[in-house]
Design goal:
The chain is α/β, with parallel strands linked by helices and 137 residues long. It is built from 8 helices and 5 strands. The relative contact order is 0.20.
């Protein structure tokens, strides 16, 4: 494993493990660069999976399997985020502190945040980029 190259958010993790409009691009991004993410991704992705279970789209065992696969993918590349950087991002935007954790990690590491979240990209254009642009689609 080399050094992390991009920060990814929960959207990319979800698209990699669940069918969606950006699933193919998420797979292309996974093959292109190594990923890292704030530890927060775990709680957010568990919530995505719980919603899929409650809507009858996944069984509990399928949700557990997808979570385990995601954990394996990011093992050793889950990082803590400095609260001061999160609050700097909060002060400069209308994004939640949750969203700002992903931006803050990218800022602290000097990396790009790859996401499909339009508001994050608009509010942090020097740091965040769309998945489409990252993979060149």
């Amino acid at each position: 494993m080399g050094a992390p190259v991009i920060v990814i958010d929960t959207n990319l993790i979800a698209y990699l493990h669940l069918p969606g409009p950006f699933s193919d691009l998420a797979e292309a991004a996974r093959l292109k660069e190594e990923w890292c993410s704030p530890v927060l991704w775990r709680s957010e992705f568990r919530n995505v999976l719980a919603n899929h279970v409650r809507r009858g789209l996944l069984s509990i065992s399928q949700a557990r399997e997808r979570m385990e696969n995601a954990e394996k993918l990011l093992w050793g590349r889950e990082l803590t985020v400095r609260s001061s950087t999160v609050f700097d991002c909060v002060a400069k935007s209308n994004r939640s502190a949750y969203d700002c954790e992903f931006v803050a990690l990218a800022l602290d590491l000097g990396l790009k945040l790859v996401t499909t979240d339009g508001p994050i990209i608009r509010e942090f254009p020097g740091t965040a980029m769309h998945l489409r642009d990252f993979v060149g689609a």
